[in-house]
Design goal:
With 431 residues, the protein is mainly α. The chain has one domain: Growth Hormone, Chain: A. The chain is 80% helix and 0% strand. α1 packs antiparallel against α10, α13 packs antiparallel against α16 and α14 packs parallel to α16.
């Protein structure tokens, strides 16, 4: 901590850190979600136009999944430096890589201009996005967790950071929806899709400014000089069980997010809803998550993260079947209300993670272990979900097969959560 910062009240420093973590994470998830929305609606007609429609969509979704495979690599690289040299500077590097890759995607030539080059470059840049996102979430969660010793306050501040995800999703889906409404679908496919990617440069500047001005985690600084083995080796040797439980706990929420927020972008056009209208699903879904995340974050402070995750797994399992029924009504009002409720329910699984997962590991391996657990769940959840859902839809002929698949991942999450031990919130409050 700098001499000048020592005179800044503790609450104000915590506010700065929370806001900086949230702003950078919002950018990271904005970049991630704008790509996911474009992969479902735009990219099949831009980079894979020579393929049959179903094949083009499948290839586009594969490029979306590529980032999930790269995330564990990012978790290892950024986790190592985050545990060895500190959280702050590593988070700044992750921010710049993610923002730069997103901006360059907006500059890529389409198939008509450069043939398959655009698709290849798209995959490479998507890999870079995945590496950056692999290092982002864990570090942002740790920064707010390591600025307080109160389990209750960790839950509340962690949920505030988690709001960054629906904010990023809202910005991404809202921007694409607005472009589609103002310029029409032809404008969106003809080049309007580039605007959200190029606009990420503005968010990078804001995020960089916010993160550059904060101080390093005090809990990390207290133990910085301790002699420790390489974080990854320590995790493998001493914390393998906890990492597996972290993966299992997280996997259900990752799959649920795709089913609730991204799957409708593929499914609704098949039942007669336009792509532009389908993008509104993302807007209302993100609003539901924004409302739900602080509510369930507060409940985590009262009940503990474990109880909220257990209830959340059961609620989302049941709602998934109701959600498909609501989509099948083809009624716009019902669909949008259902989308809002879908991610409101998902917030029960999302809000606790930023305090639940870090609490499973000691500080000297926390960045590495938390990031690996979170991102490996993305490989088995988010990365596979688009392809599995599309194959289930094609082979069964009914979307009701999708919530069955989601239910299996939520059962795993429920089991792992029950087996996890984390500190319970105390009755004490922190000023």
């Amino acid at each position: 901590m700098t001499e000048s910062d020592a005179h800044v009240p503790k609450k104000k420093r915590m506010f700065r850190v929370t806001l900086a973590s949230m702003s950078g994470t919002m950018l990271e998830f904005y970049d991630h979600f704008v790509y996911g929305s474009a992969a479902a609606v735009v990219f099949p007609a831009v980079f894979f136009v020579s393929m049959p429609p179903t094949v083009a969509l499948l290839l586009s979704l594969v490029t979306y999944s590529v980032a999930f495979i790269a995330r564990p690599l990012g978790a290892l690289v950024f986790g190592y430096f985050g545990d060895k040299v500190g959280r702050k500077n590593v988070l700044i590097v992750a921010l710049l890589i993610m923002g730069g890759a997103t901006f360059l995607i907006g500059c890529l030539p389409d198939y008509a201009t450069a043939g398959s080059f655009g698709a290849v470059a798209l995959c490479i840049l998507r890999l870079l996005q995945g590496v950056a996102l692999g290092g982002e979430w864990g570090g942002a969660a740790l920064m707010v967790n390591e600025y307080t010793t109160s389990p209750r306050l960790k839950s509340i501040l962690g949920s505030i950071v988690q709001v960054a995800s629906p904010l990023g999703f809202l910005l991404a889906s809202g921007t694409l929806s607005l472009i589609s409404d103002l310029g029409g679908e032809a404008f969106l496919l003809g080049g309007g899709w580039r605007i959200p990617f190029l606009a990420s440069a503005v968010l990078v500047v804001i995020g960089f400014y916010m993160r550059f001005g904060i101080e390093e985690s005090p809990e990390f600084l207290e133990r910085k000089e301790e002699s420790r083995p390489a974080p990854l080796m320590d995790v493998v040797k001493n914390h393998g069980r906890e990492v597996l439980l972290a993966i299992g706990t997280r996997i259900g929420s990752d799959t649920a997010f795709y089913v609730f927020a991204m799957f409708p972008l593929v499914y609704l056009p098949r039942i007669g809803i336009t792509s532009g209208s389908a993008l509104l699903v993302g807007v209302f879904a993100s609003l539901g998550q924004m409302v739900g995340t602080p509510i369930f974050g507060w409940l985590c402070g009262r009940w503990g993260t474990r109880k909220v995750l257990i209830v959340g797994a059961v609620v989302n399992m049941l709602y998934a079947f109701a959600y498909i029924f609501l989509l099948d009504t083809q009624n716009p009002t019902i669909i949008l209300a259902g989308a809002f409720m879908s991610l409101f329910c998902l917030a029960m699984l999302w809000a606790p993670l930023a305090s639940h997962l870090p609490a499973m590991f000691p500080v000297h391996v926390r960045y590495t272990a938390t990031s690996i657990g979170f991102q490996m769940a993305g490989v088995f959840g988010g990365a596979l979900a688009p392809t599995i859902c599309l194959m289930l839809l094609e082979n069964t002929g009914t979307a009701m097969s999708v919530p069955v698949y989601l239910g299996a991942t939520l059962l795993l999450a429920l089991f792992c959560t029950i087996k996890t031990r984390v500190p319970a919130p105390s009755r004490e409050t922190e000023s």
